[in-house]
Specification:
alpha+beta, 2 domains, single chain
Amino acid sequence: MSLSVPTPANFLQFAQWSGILTLVCGAIAFVAFLFKWGFRFRFVGITGFMGVLTIGLFALGLVPITRAVIPGAGRFATVYDSGATQVVITVPTPINEETLTATLQQAASDFFSPGRLGRATGEKLTIRARTVLHPKEGVSQPFYLGEVKRSLLERDDQDMEITIYRDRLAQLPPPPASNPA
């Protein structure tokens, strides 16, 4: 069985049916108030909930839900997100320069949001990639490998500034040798 992601057209259709159901619930609530039925207040709540649900579905029908996939990008986890202009992600080691570049581009795409603070001042979103090294037993050291700066105003920023710290990439421990069994 294959699951497909609903399209904006699907959400508009859901909103239409939800709107019809909201009107029906409103009519039942109105009739219940006229005849003073005991469940009339419950239908006021149901009608209100259905109204909020309809508005939400309508909004999802207007805004396309898309996520860009950058080929070659590795997995990353968010360490810190200020909600404004600073984000720190962690990447697994070992990692090479091409994978790190693609991962930074993926993070730049994923963290773009029109709701971020700093848009009015024209600041840039800075995403820094790091890993954690353990130079000796019981000691953890954050180790920054690169960063990307992108616009907070344009979704498809063609002028992203990607900086890879090649000297730090060279300091990473080599991948563990696999033992042929």
